[in-house]
Amino acid sequence: MPPQHHFEQQNIPKIIPRATYMTIDDIKAVNDAYIANEKRKAVIERANKKADGYQAMKCIFKLMVDDRYVKRYETYIDITVMGYDHAFIFYNALRDIPLFIKYGKENGVWQHRLFKKLFFYDQINWSYGRNYVRLIL
What we know:
Blueprint: H1 6-9, H2 24-63, E1 70-72, E2 76-80, H3 87-96, E3 100-102, E4 109-112, E5 118-125, E6 129-136
Antiparallel strand pairs: 1-2, 2-6, 3-4, 4-5, 5-6
Helix pairs in contact: 2-3
């Protein structure tokens, strides 16, 4: 039997395989994979926020057929959103999703970005108390 070398007895490899060295191309590949994963996470997060916004708007439109929350006039419909179970959905959408933009110089009035005749009033009103949505007909 041939004699064994000292480094073989300690399980130290004779030559370190090339795969354990990281080349610039390997580092770039790892970095590209990380960036792609972060972009994917960002897209999913934006999609979830947008879905929450649409869910809030769906809730508002459902409330339009319920007389407990609605006051109808000839030129507009007002929907109260304060103090009910559905209010938190709408407020989360207003805060987290840019579906509404500040309207003019008035404080507490927000206009829907896509549906220009839909306004959110975050202010006190004598007939509603606080916070309502107005749809201009």
